[in-house]
Amino acid sequence: MPLSTARQSLRRGTLAGAIGGTVFGLFLATVGTPLIAHAETFEAGHEHGSGHALSGLVTTLVSTFGGMLFGLLLGVVVFGAGYYLLEPVLPSATRIQSSVLGCFGFVVVSGAPWLVVPPQPPGMTASLSTGARIGLYVVMMGVGALACAAGGTIARRIHRSRFQRYALGALAGAGILGTSVLLAPAVSVSGPIPQPVARGFRWVAIGGQVGLWAVLASVHAWLGQSTHTRRIPRALTNEH
Q: Is residue 221 part of a domain?
């Protein structure tokens, strides 16, 4: 299969990001924002004033638009520029290429950092300052990238069956992540929100991210198959 041009990759990633971002924005509007509003009711002194309905509508619109932009950004950076740079070392099958990018993207952007700094509902107070948590989040993103790179290298270099290579690569990446979690400082949280609500918030946040990356990878794979088998869109296949 010929390698993609930069313009092809960016167009494909942008379209995948636009679709994935739209789905993610709708998820935030229908699930994420109402859950945050519910969590805020447990905060001391929380009041529902006359402008609460208008404020809720504005919050929903902002979160929806933000989710759309976030998905678009991921599509352009990871499935556009990232795919163009990494395509020579990715598996040859289009669907597997997109799946690998999706898994690696989730681990780097959310999965690895959340092992140490998990998402928390509003009103919770952490034992570390905001600056320290942001720094720790960035460090864990780097650790996630290292784990993905190590796992991918092992999966490519070892002469075993595909399942064995992928399993050993996943174990190597998991080992790096597990070691980093043991070495990282503990971040405890406290606040007025009941633990079941806080756990539900975290699982919804995780599910939203998993769903976003799954949609991005699925659309990206479909666009790749369309380009190579059905020549859709034609403008992509006529470039050299």
A: yes
